[in-house]
Automatic annotation (TrEMBL):
The lineage of its organism: Bacteria, Bacillati, Actinomycetota, Actinomycetes, Micrococcales. It comes from Arthrobacter wenxiniae. Residues 2-238 form the ABC transporter domain. Pfam families: ABC_tran (PF00005). Residues 244-315 are annotated as: Disordered. It comes from the Bacteria. Residues 273-287 have a biased composition (Low complexity). It is a peripheral membrane protein. InterPro entries: AAA+_ATPase (IPR003593), ABC_transporter-like_ATP-bd (IPR003439), ABC_transporter-like_CS (IPR017871), ABC_transpr_LolD-like (IPR015854), Cell_div_FtsE (IPR005286), P-loop_NTPase (IPR027417). It is found in: Cell membrane. The gene is ftsE. Part of the ABC transporter FtsEX involved in cellular division. Has ATPase activity. This is Cell division ATP-binding protein FtsE. GO terms for cellular component: plasma membrane.
Amino acid sequence: MIRFENVSIAYDRKSKPALDDVSLEVNRGEFVFLVGSSGSGKSTFLRLVLREYKTEHGQVYVAGQNVANVPSWRVPKFRRGIGIVFQDFRLINTKTVFANVAYAMQVIGKSRAAIRTEVPRVLELVGLEGKERRLPTELSGGEQQRVAIARAIVNQPGILLADEPTGNLDPTTSAGIMEILDRINQNGTTVVMATHDDDIVNSMRKRVIELRLGRVVRDEARAQYTSMMPIVPAAATVGASAASQGAPTAAGDPSAVVPSMDDGAPQTRRQRAVSAAAAGGTAGEESMPPRLERNRGRVYPGGTVEEFARNGEQP
Ligand SMILES: Nc1ncnc2c1ncn2[C@@H]1O[C@H](COP(=O)(O)OP(=O)(O)OP(=O)(O)O)[C@@H](O)[C@H]1O
């Protein structure tokens, strides 16, 4: 359904490639998590599928079509086969829930009769029946994301791309969104979701493609993911922890992710926080300011968000 053949792209000549010789294939009907730390190339991958950019090297095929050969005037039609959901919902706040979803059908010339049938069907699928007349501002974040998903699938795309769709949502609401994405996938839509959230990845056990500095470093079926260095007591060093586990050290490699394993299984962020608290660690879940909390798990050149939080800095 999606095939990348030796794809490389840099945003400008001076910078390192955002994607570097990426080759992979996503089959029809698959559910794939695209993971990796901030700046690893996840969004760039999705943008290439959408043909927002053309590759410099290599080829991107979507539904059997080489996207480089889609002329500009045909791009809107090409994109009808792809639904997309973003972290920040991107709804039209002056339109009702019904009108937001209907709009996606109107712009491609669907009939009123089709809109009257299809919009209620997808709103029911995402659990929003009864809320058709609300404005987005009258909905919770999770409900707004459901509207965005309904809008993305109302024209029955073969592919649904999701770029951090749970990034603004709490764990319970996120789980509800994942149930919906899973249901859409079970109805036959290929789903590719970019995320940092290891709790979600580990609860779903789907294929995981991990990017680091634009390269694919892992591609595994029914996989787990550890999105950040472990939260360790201040006295312990990351290098010592990693060495004792035989894991790669983050020293000198800002994108390195050090798995935290007690019993061989990667831990979720919550499990790590509990372990750290039990060990007298200082980076508890509650102690982090909201902006840093949002970026928990991201690894910056100077260290993890947790380290910045401990030092009272902003990354
Ligand atoms: N519009 C742009 N112009 C210049 N460089 C860009 C642009 N967009 C992304 N980049 C760079 O390309 C690289 C990959 O970025 P990308 O947004 O694909 O990463 P990501 O994995 O999606 O990150 P995040 O999880 O933070 O969204 C990064 O080094 C980033 O700085």
